[in-house]
């Protein structure tokens, strides 16, 4: 009996040791797990604090009652406030209504209340606010997110605030530029357009001047019209597209077109092509100027034999007739005009040394230099034996020097490759027509002639 009792006691003692060992192992495992959880929790807190403190976005946390609990560094920097100032502001506004505390929310107050009372989230992409410290206007975006307990009761509200003032200012500036550009395009007296680059051509955008120019009743009517149908000679459209593909732009090209009622209209075209990835013309952006009146005048001048036989330019009588008409238009439309007066130097000496045939060639080459330098819409004339004039409305008074430089470059380019047994030299002067202080064509010629003479004398020194 004693042996059996001892045997049972030994077995129980062994089982207790095993049970104790298992408990020790479990406790050890629990302690290790607890230590790991504490370590993970510590790392999580450090990470969250780092994100909270160093986030470039302003982060603030408010209680369900609206009390400010935490703010990060970016939030303080955004509003330019210290911790002391924040506490003072909170104390001052503690009993304010929501409208008074958040005046920039305006019609968003009901949504704002809903988040504070029932949870959820709210994103406000653009808010115009006033910095309480500096009084400066700011633009911000805000995101509100409610943190709820297990009973879905709102405990805290996290508010993410981003300063978008710089972005908003740039956006408004861009919008203002776009508005100004559209205002200019809508009100200029020349046609501004965008069309497709296919042979028929379809209008994408046109301004009111284009609608009026082609005699359409509405913008919609012109947009529904094929570009090809406005050409007097449909083959001209093909030539136009071909030139655009080759040069990428067309400048001062004169084309005979027709209005919706079939009446002819002459236009001067400036166009630039935009290409797709396959090298095909995608868009054509351009400007049209109605030059019908000028073309009619030119035809009248030709009929009156007011053209110089040698050069094909207008002679003095033709120039005076056309120039007087052009000045009337400039005065009526308040447009600037520049008159350039050019003299071919030493024509008498050229004739004496090389003969009149070379002298005539020198005059013809001078004509070609002027034609390549200036636009087709400019009035170029030979008003004397060695005297040429150009009347241009290309720009204001400050552009006269640019036109002078352009002419000198054309002259230098010609002299580099000339086959003449001499070097061409030009004396140049100019006069500016101010529509607010109008002059006659005779006064402009006198002023330009004197300017040219001073240039000629300066080269002899």
Tell me, briefly, the overall form.
elongated
Widest beta sheet: strand line-up: 2-1-5-4-3
**In CATH terms, what is the architecture of the largest domain?**
2-Layer Sandwich
Calculate Rg over CA atoms.
42 Å
What can be said about the biggest beta sheet?
5 strands, antiparallel
CATH superfamily of the largest domain: Reverse transcriptase/Diguanylate cyclase domain
The parts where pLDDT drops under 50 for at least 5 residues are none
With helices defined by DSSP (H or I, 4 residues minimum), what is the helix count?
15
CATH topology of the largest domain: Alpha-Beta Plaits
Q: How far is the N terminus from the C terminus? A: 149 Å
β-strand percent reads 15-25%
Structural class: alpha+beta
Total tally of structural domains? 4
Order of helices and strands: HEEHHHHEEEHEEHHHEEEHHEHHEEHEH
């Amino acid at each position: 009996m004693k042996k059996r009792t001892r045997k049972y006691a030994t077995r129980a003692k062994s089982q207790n040791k095993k049970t104790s060992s298992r408990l020790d192992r479990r406790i050890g495992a629990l302690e290790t797990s607890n230590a790991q959880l504490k370590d993970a929790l510590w790392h999580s807190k450090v990470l969250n604090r780092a994100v909270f403190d160093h986030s470039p976005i302003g982060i603030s946390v408010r209680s369900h009652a609206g009390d400010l609990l935490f703010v990060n560094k970016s939030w303080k920097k955004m509003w330019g406030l210290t911790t002391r100032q924040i506490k003072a502001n909170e104390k001052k506004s503690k009993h304010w209504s929501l409208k008074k505390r958040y005046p920039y929310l305006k019609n968003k107050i009901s949504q704002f209340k809903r988040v504070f009372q029932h949870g959820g989230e709210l994103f406000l992409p653009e808010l115009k606010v006033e910095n309480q410290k500096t009084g400066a206007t700011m633009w911000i975006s805000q995101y509100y997110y409610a943190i709820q307990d297990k009973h879905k009761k709102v405990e805290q509200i996290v508010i993410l605030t981003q300063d978008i003032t710089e972005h908003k200012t740039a956006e408004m500036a861009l919008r203002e530029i776009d508005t100004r550009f559209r205002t200019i395009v809508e009100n200029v007296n020349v046609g501004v357009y965008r069309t497709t680059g296919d042979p028929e051509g379809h209008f994408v955008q046109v301004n009111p001047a284009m609608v009026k120019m082609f005699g359409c009743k509405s913008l919609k009517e012109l947009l529904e019209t094929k570009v090809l149908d406005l050409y007097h000679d449909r083959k001209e459209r093909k030539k136009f597209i071909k030139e655009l593909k080759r040069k990428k732009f067309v400048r001062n090209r004169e084309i005979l077109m027709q209005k919706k009622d079939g009446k002819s209209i002459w236009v001067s075209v400036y166009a630039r092509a935009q290409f797709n990835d396959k090298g095909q013309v995608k868009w054509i952006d351009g400007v049209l100027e109605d030059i019908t009146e000028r073309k009619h005048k030119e035809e009248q001048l030709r009929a009156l034999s007011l053209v110089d036989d040698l050069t094909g330019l207008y002679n003095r009588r033709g120039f005076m007739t056309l120039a007087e008409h052009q000045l009337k238009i400039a005065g009526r439309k308040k447009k600037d005009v520049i008159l350039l007066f050019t003299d071919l130097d030493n024509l008498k000496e050229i004739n004496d040394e090389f003969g009149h045939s070379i002298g005539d060639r020198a005059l013809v080459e001078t004509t070609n230099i002027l034609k390549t330098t200036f636009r087709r819409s400019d009035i170029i004339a030979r008003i004397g034996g060695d005297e040429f004039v150009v009347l241009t409305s290309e720009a204001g008074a400050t552009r006269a020097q640019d036109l002078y430089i352009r002419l000198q470059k054309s002259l230098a380019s010609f002299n580099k490759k000339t086959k003449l047994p001499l070097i061409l030299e030009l004396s140049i002067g100019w006069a500016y027509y101010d529509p607010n202080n109008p002059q006659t064509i005779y006064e402009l010629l006198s002023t330009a002639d004197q300017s040219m003479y001073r240039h000629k004398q300066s080269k002899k020194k």
